[in-house]
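Appendix B. One record, verbatim.
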Amino acid sequence: MMIQPRKELEGVLLIDKPGDHTSHDVVARVRRKLNMKRVGHAGTLDPMATGLLIMLIGKATRISQYLISLDKEYTGTIELGKVTDSQDAQGEVLETRPVPAFSEEEIRAAMRGFLGDQYQTPPMFSAIKIDGVPLYKSARKGEEVEREPRFIRVMNFELTRFALPHLDFTLRCTKGTYVRTIAHDLGAKLGCGAHLSALRRTATHQFTIGQAITLDAFESLSIPEIEKRLIPVHQAAPSVAL
């Protein structure tokens, strides 16, 4: 009796990315589990960040650009008074400043200033390539490279916990928005400096963190169980014809 080769899996898998993992680390672990090379993701998360990472399995890699373009939602924490070179907690502290006794309304008013359409200058510690060289490689050499500001839109930026020097927030924004740059720029606006100390992606358009599975839980599943969790391409991107 001839054994039929297993058909290649295809679809969208929602993973809850752990901290201290790059998005590429997650891709590598999914590839190993599925024994497949054709695995990608739709929208990088920084190593420090946790939360929703959309994995593309098999032919679903074709809808990458569509899914990357969707709006994102986050929760996180900003720490006032410390400026870092990476604009988040993983960077070196460049400056420490006293934090004034801001009122909650002063913070909310400053945050409202970030709503709407705007241009944002990407941070030096990013994977954007200038003349073929990722910016983070230049940053590690202590070099500052001129960056082209990018158009972004912030639809929601709300304070959810006020506990100076820490500010918890929710944020909804368009693709390509650097949340750590918003944290850095808020600190500059307030005059005391700031960096992003925690970040979690909670949604990408219709996909939510409640639908996701942790990486460890994913690795404990059988292939048939994983196949049941895959979102078909026609459901994930109904307007895209493959």
